[in-house]
Amino acid sequence: MKNWIIYLIIVSTSISCSDSFLETENKNNLESSSLLTNETGLKLAVNAAYTPLAHSGMFGLQYFKMLNALDPYIWFENPETGFDVMAYSATDFDLQSYISTWSDLYIGVFRTSDVISKMKPLESTIGTENFNIYQAQLKALRGMYYFYLVTWFNKPPYYDETNIQTDANEPFKNGTPEQFWNKIESDLNFAAEHLPASWGDNDLGRITKGAAYAQLGKALLYKHYHYYLRFNKPQDETKANLLKAKQALKKVIDSGDYELIKPVIKNKKNYEAALLSNSSYVDIPVGNVTYRAENNKESVWEVQYNDDDRTSTAYNPGSTWGGNLLYAYFSPRGYRNFEIDPSLWYEFETVSGHPGGYTRDPRAYATCYLDGDTLDWRKESGFNIPFSSNAHTKTTVKLYNLYSGVSPSVAIGLKKYNYPQFYEKGTTLSAPFNVRVIRYADVLLMYSEACYQYDRDADGSGLAALNLVRTRVDMPVVTDLTSQAIIHERNVELATEGHRFNDIVRWSFDSNLNIDLATLFNNRFNVNKHCYFPIPQSEISISRGFLVQNPNW
Predict the structure, then answer these.
(1) Among 227, 230, 385, 469, which is most buried by a count of CB atoms within 10 Å?
(2) Distances (CA, A) of 355 to 266, 277, 286, 414
(3) Peptide bond into 420 cis (omega under 30)
């Protein structure tokens, strides 16, 4: 199924070669400098820098577990405590699971910075072009690690290749947003300049030029809110930043390397197959048409997983497991910890005369499991059966009386990354669904938003980009680009993919967008507190007070 996998049994950046790209194991926990004596060692060290993205703290579980609990459209099985109701602190159990996110991000920052600081002597032996491609991968990865640190933790410790901590007793202080944002931009610009547009089949999943530009555009767009609007920066600086965001995202669009997956035949099965191919772990056939799933043309940045046997009973996605834990937590066959609030279903527009025969936006049916939906098209899976609220969810919305309106189903399950059912290894735990961190639809919508923020889309290109996303599923075009059109389109296109809470927070810094935090979070969201996560108290204690907590935590 996969040509390679991002996982390692590793404590440091030292690793041992195997037949597949990132399938490696620790050998005596050597120092990274012992690896960096030739190109083979450099490649292994770069491979190790990819793996924290696949770990439990990031896309192996916690990214979706935390951000879906914080999404007002999604409910955890026990919504009376924790992230669902903004009831968490720097020391409680809910945040303990998020500490693994903090840890994995800093593992990523260390591995990338450590190798960058030590790889220079190899340039003369492997050639400058080759050297720059390795360095570009490291900088693209570090740009992503920095991005999540600054947008989630506000002022976490900052370091790069010039000031890596060597004395374990020397505590780090808080960094500044400027340090993070400046380095994110320089790292990703370097990466985009030197990375190839594509890789061969044996290197699928390595970062491409398009992925670097997409992450750069995303970072600059987020910086508009988290930095320029939040700190009331001068208008000329703000516009200059937005222009750079537009330009980076436009490079992805103009590259011609990506496209939206569209239904080949205009009927319900083809619409849903085309959409679900962006979260499936296997290609989806409909008659004579097969929709490629993983690493397809819509995927811009994708974290790779596989269904290799586990080497440990511990819950270690992307480490001792080749798969992730998303299916275990969110699927109808797993723990069923999360459930969609019916209000999300009604966010999808009604439509008449749709060529697929839909009465509501087709994306609703690729996002939500309703009673009677088929769990799997494959008879051989044994799960070619109807979805049942009673059997396949914990009916959280009903049990806690969370929704007083009319619901289309007793309970609504999460369909993305849970269709079709994973059954090959007879377990719901380690599952091989690749995570699409950025897909082309997201790029188009971010470009549309950057155009709107820059000059209210004076040239109309932002509206055109947004309408590409709508017409992919034959929804009527929007005739005027407004903030509400952008917000709506992101809500329905990217629903349950872990974007919404991040979107709400950044939009809240723009008073013109009128984000109603009180209604969204039932008066529990404190804008002076909840825009950023608390720095784990354990980290502050270890720093002996050098590291200062975020406000109001």
Answers:
(1) 469
(2) 6, 20, 17, 25
(3) yes
DSSP state of 308: P
Return the amino acid letter for 362. Answer: P
What is the CATH topology of the domain spanning 7-157+174-254? 1.25.40
Report strand pairing: 284-286 vs 289-291: antiparallel
Instruction: Please give the helix or strand (H or E) that residue 76 lies within, else none.
Output: strand 74-76
C-alpha 406/C-alpha 361 separation (Å) is: 18
DSSP readout, 335-383?
T--EEE-HHHHHHSPB-SS-TT--SB-GGGTTTEE-TT-BS-S-GGGT-
CA distance 104 to 22: 17
- Over the stretch 479-504, which tens digit does the pLDDT of each residue have? 999 999 999 999 999 999 999 999 99
Cα–Cα nearest to 145, from 191, 120, 110: 110
pLDDT tens for each residue of 179-225: 999 999 999 999 999 999 999 999 999 999 999 999 999 999 999 99
Residues 6+ apart with CB under 8 A from 414: 68, 74, 330, 331, 338, 339, 340, 367, 368, 369, 496
- Gap between the Cα atoms of 263 and 357, Å rounded: 13
Helix (H) or strand (E) holding 129: helix 128-153
Question: Is there a contact between 467 and 461 (Cβ–Cβ < 8 Å)?
Answer: no
Q: In the 8-state DSSP scheme, what is residue 289?
A: E
Cβ-count burial 400-421 (b if 16+ within 10 Å, e if not): eeeeeeebebebbbbbbbbbbb
Amino acid at 159: Y
SS3 15: coil
Contacts of 377 by beta carbon, 8 Å cutoff, 6+ apart: 284, 384, 420
- Other beta carbons less than 10 A from residue 1's beta carbon: 14
